[in-house]
Design a protein that fits this description.
heterodimer, A: 114 residues, mainly beta, 4-stranded antiparallel beta sheet, globular, B: mainly beta, 6-stranded mixed beta sheet, 0% helix
Chain lengths: 114, 116
């Protein structure tokens, strides 16, 4: 079955360390997204990408970076500049175009500070 | 700027009872509207969406939602809930006039508990 795979499920970061969250999809979707979810809050968009080698900042991109070298992969790096990285991170994908919206989500990565 | 309000943080319903989850949005034109469901520790699943046309939208798992422009609402309903419906529900709004709806605004969610 097609879907989105996020790994790892749990991740721990030390102070000053960069960590990378993996997101892979086999849905042949052009668009991919990264969201951050904090308790009691809705999802907030970090980055999104409509096509390979192109991506745009979302509402809370500071302290994060992404790459989109392959259609099926959209890794997210949480840098040491992100001072409050503890959260649940969700990756999503969709078709591209005028009615593009997050259609499929992965099961998330929970990031904590050591 | 667009915004979404889900006024109920937590709702408890008996199994077999009807359900209505409230969602109010703020947007200058007719938006695209969505409901998603999230089980604990998992990602979101799209229940239904409204883009245009019939204001009563049918979704998966027996859910429906009604777009009421005059009330700026998009409430989610189900006539008879099942224990498996216990989850967190998110309403979201997107700017329909833009190219794509990448920048959805999500509500803060309503947690649904089902009692036997």
């Amino acid at each position: 079955d097609g879907g989105i795979t996020q790994s790892p499920k749990y991740l721990f970061r030390k102070e000053g360390q960069n960590v990378t969250l993996s997101c892979e999809q086999n849905l042949n979707h052009d668009a991919m997204y990264w969201y951050r979810q904090d308790p009691g809050q809705g999802l907030r968009l970090i980055y999104y990408s409509q096509i390979v080698n192109d991506f745009q900042k979302g509402d809370i991109a500071e302290g994060y970076s992404v790459s989109r070298e392959k259609k099926e992969s959209f890794p997210l790096t949480v840098t040491s500049a992100q001072k409050n990285p503890t959260a649940f991170y969700l990756c999503a994908s969709s078709i591209a175009g005028t009615e593009s919206y997050p259609q499929h989500f992965g099961d998330g990565t929970r990031l904590s500070i050591l | 700027a667009q915004s979404v309000t889900q006024p109920d943080i937590h709702i408890t319903v008996s199994e077999g009872a009807s359900l209505e989850l409230r969602c109010n949005y703020s947007y200058g034109a007719t938006p695209y509207l969505f409901w998603y469901v999230q089980s604990p520790g998992q990602g979101l699943q799209l229940l239904l969406k409204y883009f245009s046309g019939d204001t009563l939208v049918q979704g998966i798992k027996g859910f429906e939602a009604e777009f009421k422009r005059s009330q700026s609402s998009f409430n989610l309903r189900k006539p008879s809930v099942h224990w498996s419906d216990a989850a967190e529900y998110f309403c979201a709004v997107g700017p329909s006039r833009n190219f794509g709806n990448e920048k959805l605004t999500f509500g803060t969610g309503t947690r649904l508990t089902i009692i036997p």
